[in-house]
Every structure is written in C-alpha cells, then in structure tokens.
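> call design_seq(struct)
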C-alpha cells in the first residue's frame, strides 16, 4: 500500500519543538569515517532517518562496523575495506557519491555506480570527477559505474565552476589524505561544510578557510579517532517555522542556529511575518493575514536555500498579490507547483521562474509528494486547508524529516499516517 499522510487542516499550529540533527551534515561526516584506518569516529545528534540508515548500510557493506543508538553513531574502520559500492544502495540516495573521494584517497581504487536520489533535475557529478582527476585519479565510466584508480592523490589547485556542496565535500575529504597542499577555490560555504571540517579537524586534518569560498588543506598520511556533534537541521527548522506561518500559528523552534537561515528570516520580515530570533530559538507569531508578496531567488549559501523554496512557495500561495520565485540551483524543481495547483493555487511557471498569485484559501485534494521537499511543501499546504488532504508517496518525506507527524501533532495538527511507513 502507498504510504500516505491524511491531514485535516485549517487550524493554527501552536507550541514549541526542538530541531532535529542535520541530515545533510551527518551524511558527509559519516562518509569521512572512510578516511580512517584502525580508528573510530563518533557522531552525536544524528537524525533517525532513512538516508542515514542507507549510508550506515553502505559503510557496513564496505567493511566498517557501524553502531546506531539513540541519535549517536559510532563507526569503526579497520585496515581492510572493500572498494566497491553496491548499486542497490548507491541508487537509493545521491549522497552515496560522497564515499567516492574518501574511498579513493584511502584505497587507491573506488567503483561506484552513478547515484540516485530526488528527481529534481539531471544532477551530474562531473565537478567531483574533474577535481579528482586533477588530483591524479584515472576515471573511467563503464556500464553506468565510475571506476576510479590512483597511485596516490596529489594536492593541487582546484577551481570549482560552481560551488557544489557535494563536490566540495568529496574533494575536501580526498585532499585530507592527498600528498601535499590542496587549494579548493569557489568552494561551497554551507554550514554543513563547516561541520565536516570540524569533524576532519578532530581526526587531525589541517584545513583552513571553512565557511569561505577558499579551502586550504595540507595532506596528512594518518588520521586518528575523532568525535563530532552534528549541527541542527536548518532545512527542517525552516519547514516547521513555515508550518507556523502558513497556519497563522505561534510556533517556536528550539536548539537551532538562527544565523544558518538568516535568508529565510529576512524574507519573512519582508513579507510582514512577525518573527523573533534569539540565541538558539526562533518564534513566528500569527501574521498570515497580512502576508505580503515577495520576490526571491535560490542561491548557494548564504543565499536562499533551494531546499526551502517549495515550502516557501506553499506559504506564498496564501499571500496578498503576486510573488516571484526564481530557482537557480536545480533545473526542474517546481514539481510541487502542479500539485499545489490541484489544491487551487494560482501559479504560473515560466522556465525557472514561478509567479505565484496569492489566493484567499486552498482546497483539499489528493496530491503526490514527488520528492523530499516538494512533499514537505504539500504537507504545509494541507495544514492550512480546511477539510481532508491526502498526500501520497510520503516515503520521500521520511528521507528528511524525523517522524514529521509526531512533530506536527505536538504542535496541535490533525495528521494521521495511512499505509505502511516505507
Ligand atoms: C546538496 C544537498 C541538497 C541541496 C543541494 C543544494 C546533501 C546531501 N544534499 O546536494 O539537499 O539541495 O546541496 O543546496 O547535502 N552540479 C553539477 N555538477 C556536479 C555537481 C553539481 O552540475 O558535479 C549541479 C547540480 O546538478 C545542481 C547544482 O550543481 O544543479 C547544485 O548541486 P550540489 O550543490 O552539488 O548539490 P548536492 O551536493 O547534490
């Protein structure tokens, strides 16, 4: 049976919830464990999510000993590991490609089928591969898999044509074990990269420049036991904050780093939403009735995150006037728009631009979560809609939100899971 969520919406949410640990920070940190030999990496504040168990399975298949217990993960890595990642796991999740850099750096060889993940554009990994080749890897694409070999990676200067998050993470990890110095220019500046650098430094790596566009890495031959705390999930925090906004509610998110989503807070202020941010806490107050139209464009950090674009679109559907959203990171990230239209939203798509004409209310409907954040956007729309909204394919949403229905119920939402959790 399809995995569905039934929402009886139209009531304001109220209360406070704690942010979960960041999925997108935990995944590369887990992959970094592959740089170790006869050593252990301990992670704290890891969210309990499908993507995390997929990465744990991948590391186990490669030969690591992974133990997960109550948001803590320990990963023990011995001397001998496999260099071949199985297609079944890699195709479940694009972030599996993050094992390529560390695996190649430690083993001199890595075989990885091309990754899967959310259906939001073609999402190539050419920048990852180009950087590895510059460091001295030979790469062949055979039968849909990357075959990478090297006699030893060498530090060098790499300029990324685009500040790709995954390419920055992969090349950073590879550079940590490369011979000599690497300079990574036009690197991604996301908080998740800073968390990865914290982890690598705790292992003994020598890195400078995290949070800026230039990373300088001095290669090491050996790393040691390490531990790291995963940062709060800024995307999940933004989603629950927007659930407060769209329901005209009063919602507080605790244990967050508000600076990590300043771009959303700025846009909410511009839209006349009453929002207050203090050390570690952000609150939205009932203000949807005066929600103004805004224009915004998704950009690499510290710009507005593409992963919050669908959820903000749902909110703007109920604003006053015409809002404009320009998606500049992914080429087909408006799949939620056609589902929102089924609920009565007035959205016009022109290439990578969406024009959203605010409507007074949305209508309940059966809609489909086409990917993780599109699903989150539909949940928000359902929460604001009187009557019964059914969201199909909730499995996508489970990849990124730890027990979303419990979090929403604790804020007073009427949500019920129908069907089996995938
Ligand atoms: C990460 C996040 C994802 C987020 C995205 C952008 C994780 C696990 N996932 O994904 O949630 O939406 O950052 O903030 O952290 N590109 C290329 N060639 C490459 C690499 C990327 O053309 O080699 C393009 C992609 O197709 C995309 C854009 O660059 O259009 C951004 O991709 P990237 O920053 O690499 O995103 P991910 O690391 O995949």
């Amino acid at each position: 049976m399809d995995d569905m969520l039934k929402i009886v919406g139209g009531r304001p949410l109220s209360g406070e919830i704690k942010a979960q640990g960041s999925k997108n920070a935990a995944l590369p940190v887990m992959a970094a464990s592959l740089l170790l030999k006869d050593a252990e990496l301990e992670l704290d504040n890891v969210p309990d999510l499908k993507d995390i168990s997929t990465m744990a399975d991948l590391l186990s298949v490669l030969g690591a000993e992974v133990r997960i217990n109550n948001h803590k993960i320990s990963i023990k890595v011995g001397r001998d590991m496999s260099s071949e990642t199985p297609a079944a796991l890699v195709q479940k999740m694009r972030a599996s490609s993050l094992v390529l850099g560390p695996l190649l750096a430690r083993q001199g060889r890595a075989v990885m089928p091309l990754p899967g993940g959310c259906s939001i554009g073609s999402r190539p990994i050419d920048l990852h591969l180009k950087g590895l080749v510059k460091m001295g890897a030979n790469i062949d694409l055979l039968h849909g898999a990357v075959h990478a070999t090297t006699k030893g990676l060498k530090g060098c200067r790499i300029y990324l044509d685009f500040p790709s998050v995954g390419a920055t993470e992969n090349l950073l990890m590879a550079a940590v074990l490369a011979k000599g110095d690497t300079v990574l220019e036009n690197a991604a500046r996301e908080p998740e990269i800073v968390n990865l650098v914290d982890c690598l430094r705790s292992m003994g790596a020598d890195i400078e420049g995290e949070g800026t566009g230039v990373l300088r890495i001095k290669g090491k031959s050996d790393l040691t036991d390490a531990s790291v705390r995963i940062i709060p999930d800024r995307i999940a925090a933004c989603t629950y904050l927007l659930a407060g906004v769209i329901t005209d509610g009063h919602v507080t998110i605790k244990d967050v780093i508000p600076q990590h989503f300043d771009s959303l807070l700025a846009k909410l202020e511009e839209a006349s939403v009453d929002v207050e941010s203090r050390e570690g806490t952000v609150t939205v107050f009932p203000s949807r009735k005066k929600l103004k139209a805004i224009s915004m464009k998704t950009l690499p950090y510290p710009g507005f995150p593409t992963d919050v674009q669908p959820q903000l679109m749902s909110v703007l559907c109920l604003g006053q006037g015409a809002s404009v959203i320009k998606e500049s990171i992914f080429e087909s990230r408006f799949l939620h728009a056609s589902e929102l239209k089924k609920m009565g939203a007035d959205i016009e798509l022109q290439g990578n631009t969406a024009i959203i004409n605010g409507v007074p209310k949305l209508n309940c409907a059966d809609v489909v979560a086409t990917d993780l954040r599109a699903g989150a956007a539909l949940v928000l729309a359902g929460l604001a809609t009187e009557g019964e909204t059914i969201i199909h394919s909730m499995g996508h949403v489970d990849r990124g939100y730890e027990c979303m229905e419990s979090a929403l119920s604790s804020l007073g939402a009427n949500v019920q899971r129908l069907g089996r959790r995938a």
